[in-house]
Amino acid sequence: MTRDPLRNVSRRRFLAVGGGALAAVGASRLALPALATPTGVASWSAQRRVGQAGPGSSIELRAEEVTIDLAGRSATTWGYNGTVPGPLVRVRAGDTLRATVVNNVEDPTTIHWHGIRLVNAMDGVPDVTQPAIAPGGEFSYEFVVPDPGTFFFHPHVGLQLDRGLYAPLVVDDPNEVGAYDAEWILVLDDWTDGVGRSPDAIFEGLRDMASMTDGGGGHGGPVGGHSAPSQADHGGGDDSGAGMAMPTGESRLLGGHAGDVDHPIYLINGRPPKDPETFTATVGHRVRLRIINAGADTAFRFAVGGHRLTVTHADGFPIDPVEADAVLLGMGERIDAVVTVADGAAPVVARAEGKSGDARAVLRGSTTGRAPGPGTRVAELAGRVLTVHEMRAASAVRLADRPIDRRHRLRLDGNHERYRWTINGRVFDHSDEGLPIEAGERVRLIFDNRSTMWHPMHLHGHTFAVEGDGARKDTVVVKPGGRVSVDFDADNAGTWMVHCHNGYHQEAGMMAAVAYR
Ligand code: C2O
Ligand code: CU
């Protein structure tokens, strides 16, 4: 156990593995101190003193039981290496990342490296790209990381992502000269495990409710995580209303019903609003925020009180910068935005879109001044909210112009009798061969949402262009009744999942595959 001299005091553990080569830092260390330098170069190199990946570097990630402190309330969950979020993994584009995953929990697990264009065998999809790692077992991932950007990783088994098994993965571009002075990684999450019902119990509840509902519009309605701890680990049967009140509401931005699950708490970097993480920076400095939605059922509307956001990246890839008051992130999406630090202590808010509650942090531009309380209003949330259709890929990452060789329409729907979510009428089956495509083709997927709820659709192993010349992304929000087309080049052979990143929808079958050799 080491304490990094660069950082302020941390309640969480710090872990560095691999001969100092690969950065692996505890969650609260995600907040880097601002450095008095004109560009981002110095702050990157400061972070590289923690470590950088190179040939031979490796990290160990232990999936294990973890007890976290949520403003005085303790919650036992599963996390990586004793923290929630797990350790930051940081490499340079082109490096080889080696991670040995040790499974110390009672269920099988895997790690999926969300958004990374890696070799298929390392993609972490159980029974498709590898057998799941059995309890007590381990598995070594090793792959080249081609693209810089903001990513994260999580299991691809059951509802494990809705526990604490997630962590940021940042890939630096050695040649990038960032127009910013400091960097702050913010991982957003909707939380129930250990304080409300377990994710598995919630899922059982959704199935039971669906079977009791007639034509509920493709789902059984929201289920909460608010029940007493004594009921926390029983699915079904005990739903006397405690966990089922408080339906999640409507959202104009999401085109209707916002979610299926009412999580009791929302977190930024594992901290609840009553115990927010504080990032201190020099007034006038530009801070690059790397925002990651690791939630299971919650879109977040994100803003910083008294600050404008200059949005620079979507899902890791640069866009033509856009100014906004707030941004919307579906599950699995990431946004990078730069803010110029104002004097005082500003509330940073990720409002659970269409739900009640928010996650909070504090951006401090001076060491004096009262911290904003958990109820402080943030006017920017009601301002201009940037959504994906207003983003355009930066010219360097635009797909080359060429005709579409193959189209697949993916009809997104829900089944009314059971909590079942489908793509082209089917729930995923691991023996599915996948939608056929040929290596070398330009492929267009058309997400055609016929259900009554929005879906953040995610493709593995590739990044796609949204609606022709839109942002390069790997996850895109598709509203009810809406249709979004995404294009990619079939240049990474394998069987690749395409699925809804709502953990509950995915678990209920909303997943398909595309496959080519
Ligand atoms: Cu982050 Cu298959 O997902
Ligand atoms: Cu969905």
Walk me through this protein's architecture.
With 517 residues, this protein is mainly beta. It has helices spanning 40-48, 199-212, 503-507; strands at 23-25, 59-70, 73-80, 88-92, 96-103, 112-114, 138-144, 149-154, 167-172, 182-191, 223-224, 250-251, 256-257, 261-262, 265-268, 277-280, 286-293, 300-304, 309-314, 317-324, 326-329, 334-340, 345-352, 358-364, 385-386, 406-415, 420-423, 435-436, 442-449, 455-459, 464-466, 472-473, 475-478, 483-489, 494-500, 511-516. The strands form eight sheets. A six-stranded mixed beta sheet has the order 15-10-17-22-19-20. A six-stranded mixed beta sheet has the order 16-24-23-18-21-25, with no helix packed on it. Mean pLDDT is 85; it is low at 1-55, 214-220 and 227-247. CU-O-CU linkage (C2O) is lined by residues 112, 114, 154, 156, 332, 458, 460, 497, 499, 501. Residues 112, 114, 154, 156, 332, 458, 460, 497, 499, 501 line the site of CU-O-CU linkage.
Give the arrangement of secondary structure elements.
Elements lengths: L22 E3 L14 H9 L10 E12 L2 E8 L7 E5 L3 E8 L8 E3 L23 E7 L4 E6 L12 E6 L9 E10 L7 H14 L10 E2 L25 E2 L4 E2 L3 E2 L2 E4 L8 E4 L5 E8 L6 E5 L4 E6 L2 E8 L1 E4 L4 E7 L4 E8 L5 E7 L20 E2 L19 E10 L4 E4 L11 E2 L5 E8 L5 E5 L4 E3 L5 E2 L1 E4 L4 E7 L4 E7 L2 H5 L3 E6 L1
Parallel strand pairs: 2-5, 4-9, 10-17, 11-14, 16-24, 21-25, 26-29, 28-36
Antiparallel strand pairs: 1-4, 2-3, 5-7, 6-8, 8-9, 10-15, 12-13, 17-22, 18-21, 18-23, 19-20, 19-22, 23-24, 26-27, 29-34, 30-33, 30-35, 31-32, 31-34, 35-36
Bound molecules: CU-O-CU linkage and copper (II) ion.
